[in-house]
Write a structure and sequence with these properties.
The structure is a single chain. The chain is of the alpha+beta class. It has one domain. Helix content is about 35%, strand content about 20%. It is built from 15 helices and 15 strands. The strands form four sheets. The chain has a nine-stranded mixed beta sheet with strand order 1-11-12-13-10-9-2-3-4, sandwiched between helices. Helix 7 crosses helix 8. The longest helix has 22 residues.
């Protein structure tokens, strides 16, 4: 490898080309085709979009999108370094009528943003290395910071009623307050390792007494310790490994805070709203317990409620921009017919995308199922759809052969997505493109400004 900034040789490649060893090796190789799906592999999973008959059909009049960005800054170049990470998470909400009044997007400009109103932002900061709360060790600092970030951020801003906090949504989901209220979760003490069942201590889940419990060893356990991110950090290496996981957890809880608010206030707009998450419907690494033990049961409960009341209450999707499924789509897009949706079986996923792993893909991490959608030559994308089954089904069993027709209101969701197409980026959508502009923290000048701000505040 060359030095930083050193230019590579313009003629060294000729020695590689002329090498007998290289030529001999290539002569013994052959291109493989086993991992290239053909139409025969896809025929059992492809459905013509126009033929889909949604069991429940709700007109979607509103779009809510959640996206986030973060910027890590280094305060000095000396060793050991002092690092912090700033987060910016946003919600964009607009009516379909607003969208109809806009011309097709070729660029994103302030006038468009102004017309697509109801933008809300949330901000917090996480110590990464060699910065901690006064009189606290580093791991306790991170745990308290995560707890406080979910507690302090709430719908409507800092001055709003604390009942709208993201922390209350975590408790609402864990305690199953949307149903019979008998939910709980096992949380391991970060100090002694003893596990305790975290249950609702009062008649009302939002009571602050439910924010924490005390272990027998004397350590205070916060309900946000359910994310178990403290397992990935230490005093020496800092919290770098959890930076993206903190953002993912915040994004997901923010979406469900909106849903909780609508349910608790008997709002009719829930069934008329398409919720879009930038990225997959999943929580990875240590967050997987929260995904399959907390979020999935809620979505399964709401699926049954939707079927019983013949109203699609949860219209939740994820749109992926990168990853192995996106790469697979790029490689196979030409083999997929226009105006079709392909919902792959687990065998297809193992054969052509992830490899033959011992466990089923997403069995612990996902709360949605994967599909490949191709509208035409200009629009094809990876779509995650909220899990389409009730409390009697298991995720690992269902994704063996998922059925797109099980997804409630899927036809209306697809038609709205086609309308949301944005020409600014390849395979992009208007709300995500706009919101990404609003929450992304730039390296220049944003990073420099945050660095100067932090130095001033820490003096």
């Amino acid at each position: 490898m060359g030095y930083l900034g050193e230019k590579a040789s313009k003629f060294a490649h000729q020695y590689v080309i002329e090498s007998p060893l290289v030529k001999n090796f290539l002569s013994r190789c052959d291109r493989t085709s086993e991992k290239t799906p053909e139409k025969i592999d896809q025929k059992n999973f492809v459905v013509d979009i126009d033929s889909i008959k949604s069991e429940i059909s709700n007109e979607l009049n509103r779009v809510v999108t959640v996206d986030a960005g973060y910027q890590e800054i280094i305060l000095d170049d000396s060793y050991p370094t002092n690092r912090l990470c700033y987060y910016s998470i946003g919600i964009l909400c607009f009516s379909v009528k607003d969208l109809d009044n806009l011309e097709e997007q070729h660029t994103i400009n302030p006038n468009d943003v102004g017309r697509l109103k109801n933008i809300d932002r949330f901000h917090f900061v996480l110590p990464v290395q060699n910065i901690k709360l006064k009189q606290k060790d580093f791991i306790t600092t991170i745990r308290e910071t995560i707890y406080q970030s979910f507690k302090d951020n709430k719908l409507g801003g800092e001055t709003e009623d604390s009942s709208n906090s993201l922390l209350n949504t975590i408790k609402w989901l864990i305690f199953k307050s949307y149903a019979n209220g008998d939910g709980s979760i096992e949380i391991r003490c970060p100090s002694c390792g003893h596990s305790s069942q975290f249950k609702n201590k009062t008649n009302f889940y939002a009571d602050s007494k439910n924010d924490f419990t005390d272990c027998d060893c004397g350590e205070r356990i916060y309900i946000t310790d359910c994310f178990q991110m403290y397992d990935l950090i230490d005093e020496i290496n800092g919290s770098g490994p959890i930076i993206s996981y903190v953002m993912s957890a915040f994004e997901v809880v923010l979406i469900f805070t909106l849903i909780r608010y609508a349910l608790e206030n008997n709002s009719k707009w829930l069934s008329e709203t398409l919720f879009i998450k930038d990225g997959s419907l999943a929580l990875f690494s240590k967050l997987d317990d929260f995904s399959y033990k907390v979020i999935r049961p809620f979505l399964q409960f709401m699926y049954e409620k939707s079927k019983n009341e013949k109203t699609s209450y949860i219209n939740l999707i994820g749109l992926e921009k990168s990853g192995m499924f996106m790469e697979h789509l790029r490689n196979t897009e030409a083999t997929i017919n226009e105006n079709t949706i392909l919902t792959p079986s687990i065998d297809y996923i193992k054969k052509f995308i992830t490899g033959d792993n011992k466990t089923n893909f997403g069995e612990r991490t996902y709360f949605g199922i994967k599909s490949f959608v191709k509208k035409n030559k200009d629009l094809a994308f990876v779509l995650d759809i909220s899990i389409p089954f009730g409390t009697n089904a298991q995720y690992g069993k269902y994704i063996e052969n998922p059925n797109i027709n099980d997804c409630l209101n899927i036809q209306n969701i697809l038609q709205l997505l086609f309308k949301l197409k944005c020409n600014m980026y390849d395979k992009s959508f208007i709300p995500i493109a706009i919101l990404n502009k609003l929450v992304s923290l730039s390296s220049v000048p944003g990073k420099k400004i945050l660095t100067m701000f932090t130095k001033d505040e820490l003096l």
